[in-house]
Amino acid sequence: MAEQRDRRKKGNRNREKESEWQERVVQIRRVTKVVKGGKKLSFRAIVVVGNERGQVGVGVGKAGDVIGAVKKGVADAKKHTITVPLNKASSIPHRVNGEAGGARVMMRPASAGTGVIAGGAVRTVLELAGVRNILAKQLGSSNPLNNARAAVDGLSTLRTFGDVAKERDIPLEQVFS
């Protein structure tokens, strides 16, 4: 009896650790592959995973059923997480552009209280990254996978003023002048 209780506690603890990551399905598509005997159906899921504290990832999973595709997408997204430097206003430190395929995403920092002004997959990526105030615009393609990847590409190139000062071997005050 006591062993079962301990197992349940361990299971709950593992769930609590995993629950810090939020996952959102951006798109589920039914895809087909033409083979000798006809068409083989499967599902593709685009999933964004983030902890709302500066870490986010985009993943794709394909499987014969939707649940399997989502699980594979979550695993892929966790493999490809990036860390986003956020400033005190829960915004990004500077303007940035990201590209993936035919999609381009432009992101600008915003003052506190602005909120997330973005659409589609880019909005999901920014919210799960923990960005609270930002202006973003999708340019080019409207493909949700490429737009999500473009947003991650842009966020991965962000640098803080401290990082820039360290790279240049100069004091932080000199970066601003």
UniProtKB/TrEMBL annotation:
Region (Disordered): 1-22
GO cellular component: ribosome
Record-linked Pfam families: Ribosomal_S5, Ribosomal_S5_C
Entry-linked Gene3D superfamilies: 3.30.160.20, 3.30.230.10
InterPro entries xrefs: Ribosomal_Su5_D2-typ_SF, Ribosomal_uS5, Ribosomal_uS5_bac-type, Ribosomal_uS5_C, Ribosomal_uS5_N, Ribosomal_uS5_N_CS, Ribsml_uS5_D2-typ_fold_subgr
SUPFAM superfamilies on file: dsRNA-binding domain-like, Ribosomal protein S5 domain 2-like
Highest rank taxon of the organism: Bacteria
Keyword field: Ribonucleoprotein, Ribosomal protein, RNA-binding, rRNA-binding
Alphabetized PROSITE patterns for the sequence: RIBOSOMAL_S5 (PS00585), S5_DSRBD (PS50881)
Function of the molecule: With S4 and S12 plays an important role in translational accuracy.
Family annotation (HAMAP family): Ribosomal_uS5_B
Protein name: Small ribosomal subunit protein uS5
Origin organism lineage: Bacteria, Bacillati, Cyanobacteriota, Cyanophyceae, Oscillatoriophycideae
